[in-house]
Amino acid sequence: MRLPSILLCTALLAACSQPAPPPAAATSDARPSPEAAAAPAAVDTVPGDESAHDVRQRIGQLLGEVAPYETVFAALQKGVAAHDAKAVATLPIYPLHINVAGQKREIADAATFEREYDRIITADIAQAVTAQTFDTLFVNAQGVMLGNGQVWIGSVCADATCADPQVGITAIQN
After folding, report:
1. Which tens digit of pLDDT belongs to each residue from 53-64?
2. Count of domains observed in the chain
3. Which of 73, 109, 156, 172 lies 20 to 30 angstroms, CA to CA, from 145?
């Protein structure tokens, strides 16, 4: 009688256990939607819990080269702080998925982004970008997150080899 009880308990525990997530690819040819980016799956840290070394290490492990992420991050902060729509418009990977003021849409190109800059980079988003420090970025396999998910920087592969992934803003939301 004891063996069936042990087997039943083991089966119940196994049914309640979460499977391990599959290993993440370093880059992807498909950007996450803003909704997916806002709810990152299976992470082992919380936003703001990483040190600068840890952030660089996690970017290297999960996303590849660190330098392109630092470059985009610095350019984004500088452009937003200066309210330089033209400079910031060069940073997204188009089409850019945005979800701002309850409106989900795609921005097709830099000219559209520049023209609609003030509707895309709201005061809350600008505050999140300018207040962020590189050593407090949240990193997962989808990219790096600024603020509480207001901006995501990620990479997109140009071809199947993904020899030269393009790093840029992949989602903006508030």
Report:
1. 689 999 999 999
2. 1
3. 109
